[in-house]
Design goal:
The protein has a seven-stranded parallel sheet with strand order 3-2-1-4-5-6-7, sandwiched between helices. Helices cover 45% and strands 14% of the residues. Strand 1, helix 1 (20-31) and strand 2 form a beta-alpha-beta unit. The protein is an alpha/beta fold. Helix 1 (20-31) crosses helix 8 (217-228), helix 3 (65-79) runs parallel beside helix 4 (102-130) and helix 4 (102-130) packs parallel to helix 5. Belongs to the short-chain dehydrogenases/reductases (SDR) family. InterPro entries: NAD(P)-bd_dom_sf, SDR_fam. Keywords: Oxidoreductase. It is an enzyme of class 1 (oxidoreductase).
């Protein structure tokens, strides 16, 4: 292995790590040698994933700012500060803007944007104090372009916020902690099940992807591992798009 890609011994926290892209990220980081902490609201699922990876499970609701601070402090006290934080937890709500319930709008923003801030601040506090670390936020192509035909204004707005939050934290913490984001395109996970079940949605998606297929979660995870590693030591404030060419058209 090229030395700069080696994550041996580094403590990596992955939120929403029990399934989907999060699980793939946890798996790839573990393969690269990291000590992985699988953080998820679904603690049973987190334990199952962590057990498979010989890692640790953490019950974490990213919308609970105080809970995030407590979890980060306990982790730092017991294992030292995280060297890698991947903010992956996210949800989507497909509803027209004229009809979406305000509670649903707030929930999407709370998980996808506020949750990234809560965890970045809680775990980043210890990273900044240690003077080292890498944060990788999982954004989306939806933070850059409006996808269609599915209506999801709240999700799009949240991911756009994640992109600028990433750049803001990167500038604030420069020289101590690197902060970057991955913007996946359509990926074959639970989050896209609804769209994949609707031919009018799915066919539109495929028509807009020059590579003609969805990503698999491991392809996203490998990009995360790169940004988390020393191979990306001079990269901060970047949103790396992994979308099969969707946003290049």
């Amino acid at each position: 292995m090229i030395a700069e890609f080696d994550l041996t011994g580094r403590l990596a926290v992955v939120t929403g790590g029990a399934a989907g892209i999060g699980r793939a990220i946890a798996e790839v980081l573990a393969e690269a040698g990291a000590r992985v902490v699988v953080a998820d609201r679904d603690f049973a699922a987190a334990k199952a994933t962590a057990s498979a990876l010989k890692g640790h499970a953490l019950a974490l609701d990213v919308t609970d700012a105080e809970g995030c601070e407590t979890a980060a402090t306990k982790l730092a006290a017991g294992h030292g500060p995280a060297a890698i934080l991947v903010n992956n937890a996210g949800i989507v709500q497909n509803a027209p803007s004229l009809d979406v319930a305000l509670a649903d709008w707030r929930r999407v923003i709370d998980v996808n944007l506020h949750g990234v801030f809560h965890t970045a601040r809680a775990f980043g506090r210890h990273m900044v104090a240690a003077g080292t670390g890498s944060v990788v936020n999982i954004s989306s192509i939806c933070g850059e372009v409006t996808v269609h035909p599915q209506p999801q204004a709240a999700y799009n707005a949240a991911k756009a916020g994640v992109n600028l939050l990433t750049k803001s934290l990167a500038v604030e913490w420069a020289g101590r902690v690197r902060v970057n984001a991955i913007a996946p395109g359509y990926t074959a996970t639970e989050l896209t099940l609804l769209g994949r079940s609707k031919p009018e949605w799915f066919n539109t998606w495929l028509a807009g992807i020059p590579m003609g297929r969805l990503a698999n979660p491991r392809e996203i995870a490998l990009a995360v591992a790169f940004l988390a590693s020393d191979a990306a030591s001079y990269i901060t404030g970047t949103v790396l798009t992994v979308d099969g060419g969707y946003t290049a058209i």
